[in-house]
């Protein structure tokens, strides 16, 4: 079992920045990868960034060059730095962990990001 707690969501103007944090606890040594997904109203959840235990990083095309995922292993925390935010980035952002040999997905409770003038 892995527990994920996100923080950092807020209301920000277009062009602004936010940093989301996700603290992991529980069976953290079984985590294969962590990432961030988002879900806008009426849309499916999509994975926007991920980082594996080996350090490989992937981004959804629409956020490349604007979002940066990073991790602090000592703090068991993953971050998502979001710059040049656009209204279409508005969504609930969820932390994700892929755990164990069965590659089980765990999700946090979500944090709201609203980009609006």
Enumerate how many helices there are, as a single number. Answer: 0
Measured by DSSP, the beta-strand proportion falls in: over 45%
What Rg is obtained from the alpha carbons, in whole angstroms? 14 Å
Instruction: State the major sheet.
Output: 7 strands, mixed
Q: Report the span from N to C terminus.
A: 40 Å
SSE sequence, one letter per element: EEEEEEEEEEE
Shape: globular
Q: Whole-number average pLDDT?
A: 96
Counted beta strands? 11
Question: Low-confidence parts lasting 5 or more residues at pLDDT below 50?
Answer: none
- Which structural class do the helices and strands define? mainly beta
What percent of residues adopt helix (DSSP H or I)? under 10%
Describe what you observe in this structure:
It is built from no helices and 11 strands. The chain is globular, with a radius of gyration of 14 Å. The strands form 2 sheets. Strands 2, 4, 5, 6, 9, 10 and 11 form a 7-stranded mixed β-sheet that branches. A 4-stranded antiparallel β-sheet has the order 1-3-8-7, with no helix packed on it. It is 0% helix and 56% strand. The protein has strands at 2-7, 11-12, 18-26, 31-39, 46-52, 57-59, 67-72, 77-82, 91-99, 104-107, 111-115. The model has no long low-confidence stretch (mean pLDDT 96). It is mainly β and 117 residues long. Strand 7 and strand 8 (77-82) form a beta hairpin.
């Amino acid at each position: 079992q892995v527990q994920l707690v996100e923080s950092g969501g807020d209301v920000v103007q277009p062009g602004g920045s936010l940093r989301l944090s996700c603290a992991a606890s529980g069976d953290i040594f079984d985590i294969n990868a962590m990432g961030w997904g988002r879900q806008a109203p009426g849309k499916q959840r999509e994975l926007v960034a991920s980082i594996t235990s080996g350090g490989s990083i992937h981004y959804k095309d629409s956020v490349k060059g604007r979002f940066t995922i990073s991790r602090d292993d000592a703090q068991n925390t993953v971050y998502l730095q979001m710059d040049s935010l656009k209204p279409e980035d508005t969504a609930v952002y969820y932390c994700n962990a892929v755990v164990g040999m069965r590659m089980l997905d765990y999700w946090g409770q979500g944090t709201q990001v609203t980009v609006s003038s």
